[in-house]
Specification:
This protein has eleven helices and eight strands. By secondary structure, it is of the alpha/beta class. It has one domain: Alpha/Beta hydrolase fold, catalytic domain (Rossmann fold, 3-Layer(aba) Sandwich). It has an eight-stranded mixed beta sheet, sandwiched between helices. Strand 7, helix 9 and strand 8 form a beta-alpha-beta unit. Helix 2 packs parallel to helix 11 and helix 3 crosses helix 4. The chain starts with 10 loop residues before the first helix and ends with a helix.
Amino acid sequence: MTTVSKPKRGFLFWLKRIVTGFLIFILALIVTIFAGGALVRAQVKANYPPPGQLVDVGGYKLHIHCEGEGSPTVVVLAGSGVPSTYYWLIQSEAAKMTRVCVYDRAGYAWSEEGSGDLSPMGQVEDLEILLANAGIKAPYILAGHSYGGYVARLYAQAHPEAVAGLVMIDSAHEDQWTNYPQSIQDMAKQMYSGPNKPFNVFLMGFLRSLQTVLPVSDPMVEYFPSDVAETLTAVRKLHPLNIYTVKAEVSDMALGKSPRVLHLGDIPMIVITHGVPVELMGQSDEANAGFERVNLEMQTRLLSLSANVRQVFAEESNHDELPVKQADLVVEALNDLLSGSR
């Protein structure tokens, strides 16, 4: 009787089996992470409802939360990618003096992702509509952190009659990116310019979901009461790594195409400047030194925008820490402007 032996399974056979199994595992992992991210975001929305109101600004809704009573109303404009909860310390103290409103731009925290123009002037228009539709009347004192300071100046330039004062919380300047060392300019152009390619959209969606299911660490939470710290940690999961919202906001600035603020007349303005430099990862010591030099130079340029301006240094804080670690400086500046406007 003739026996037929089974063909030997060689290296290529096992390689194909291993590769196929690995690809199935990766696909299952991706599906699990996307599904897990969606589930966590749904849980955050259910467990951490917006403290304020959602206001339609023309096809999408923005979240705004006001506390306190009095006039002028203080409006806090957040830095790029930062939720309104981050400014809780400023709001809770300043609300003892007047009404204080914080809001989330499109794509952040409780606000919906915007379908309109998210450029700097688009943000000014959103703020105009938001304040009008929420019934929050002028005059305003605008307190803007980082990119929010730039939007505040654009708003004041467009509506000087509505603005009783400005507090620039280590504000961004429209010329900063084009003056940074070349390696930092190149990094910015790579991040904030160019089309949203399908792979990039997929990659950012994957990273967004991955960060949603992983723990979020923020060293600043230790400065907040436990319930506020918990909320701040949670709401960061609603729009984590939303690079396309950030890109829409600052791409013109990174490419040197930002609208300019020429002069704000005699609107009272207090410029609060960081005292601790920030070091960018992946940049040389020389580039980081140039980064800090330009940042301080841009702060000095802000002083020429108003005939009624002064500068304060937050010696203990870097750019990101300032609104939390030295919130008292911001509240003091707001108090000074309120006293002068009443």
